Automatic annotation (TrEMBL):
<dbReference type="GO" id="GO:0006166">
    <property type="term" value="P:purine ribonucleoside salvage"/>
</dbReference>
<keyword id="KW-0547">Nucleotide-binding</keyword>
<dbReference type="GO" id="GO:0032263">
    <property type="term" value="P:GMP salvage"/>
</dbReference>
<keyword id="KW-0479">Metal-binding</keyword>
<dbReference type="GO" id="GO:0006178">
    <property type="term" value="P:guanine salvage"/>
</dbReference>
<keyword id="KW-0460">Magnesium</keyword>
<keyword id="KW-0808">Transferase</keyword>
<dbReference type="GO" id="GO:0052657">
    <property type="term" value="F:guanine phosphoribosyltransferase activity"/>
</dbReference>
<dbReference type="GO" id="GO:0005829">
    <property type="term" value="C:cytosol"/>
</dbReference>
<keyword id="KW-0660">Purine salvage</keyword>
<dbReference type="GO" id="GO:0000287">
    <property type="term" value="F:magnesium ion binding"/>
</dbReference>
<dbReference type="GO" id="GO:0046100">
    <property type="term" value="P:hypoxanthine metabolic process"/>
</dbReference>
<dbReference type="InterPro" id="IPR029057">
    <property type="entry name" value="PRTase-like"/>
</dbReference>
<dbReference type="GO" id="GO:0000166">
    <property type="term" value="F:nucleotide binding"/>
</dbReference>
<comment type="pathway">
    <text>Purine metabolism; GMP biosynthesis via salvage pathway; GMP from guanine: step 1/1.</text>
</comment>
<comment type="pathway">
    <text>Purine metabolism; IMP biosynthesis via salvage pathway; IMP from hypoxanthine: step 1/1.</text>
</comment>
<keyword id="KW-0328">Glycosyltransferase</keyword>
Length: 186
């Protein structure tokens, strides 16, 4: 059956939990970016849900742009190689850049983006991440702002996908183990 709620073992963060995290982070960012006209960079595709909610909690004059980077493709685990699929339209030179991400796992994607934007002459490069998954970290990348830590579970919803589906769940849940097994056996 194709009902998207059926693939969830249990809920981790409800819509209200997510909203509270956005409010809290938005307040911090409003203070820290006051007067800076930051460029907010969303990492496609996972970050778009979080970005749109987060920026509406920021009372800051900001620009928004997107980078499409991908390391997973349709795989369960990171390939270890990050690809720049589609670039920003904005020049980041001398800008205060805030990268928005849904999740940091190995850290490879975030590290790739941070290094790229620094190389291009950004004045500052920080990030705001909804979920910080530390168990599989491969590169030591600074995470200036995050909503919550998560354990080593496969989380989906609110932008986070499994084989590119289930991003449109309103909440964040843990995938049923049998769903993962189905794929691993193929
Ligand atoms: C996922 C996620 C992060 C990244 C985190 O993106 O949205 O961007 O992986 O993993 P890492 O810390 O191990 O690099 P993905 O490459 O699946 O693309 P998507 O956002 O389009 O789903
Ligand atoms: Mn992503
Ligand atoms: Mg993905």
């Amino acid at each position: 059956n194709d009902n998207i709620n059926n693939i969830i073992d249990h809920k981790l963060f409800s819509e209200d939990d997510i909203h509270q995290m956005c409010v809290k982070l938005g307040k911090q960012l409003t203070t820290d970016y006051a007067g800076k006209k930051p460029l907010i960079v969303g990492a496609l595709k996972g970050a778009i849900f979080f970005l749109t909610d987060l920026v509406r909690e920021m009372d800051v004059k900001a620009e928004i742009d997107f980078l499409d980077v991908s390391s997973y493709g349709n795989e369960m685990e990171s390939s270890g190689k990050v690809k720049l699929v589609s670039d920003l339209a904005t020049d980041v030179k001398d800008r205060d850049v805030l990268i928005v991400e849904d999740i940091v796992d190995t850290g490879l994607t975030l590290d790739f983006m941070k290094e790229l934007l620094k190389k291009r002459g950004a004045k500052s490069v920080k990030c705001c991440v909804l979920l910080n998954k530390e168990a599989n970290r491969k590169v030591d990348v600074d995470i200036e702002y995050y909503g919550s830590k998560v354990g080593n579970e496969f989380v989906v919803g609110y932008g986070l996908d499994f084989m590119n589906f289930y991003r449109n769940l309103k909440y964040i849940g843990v995938l049923k183990p049998e769903i993962i097994k189905l794929v691993n056996n193929k």
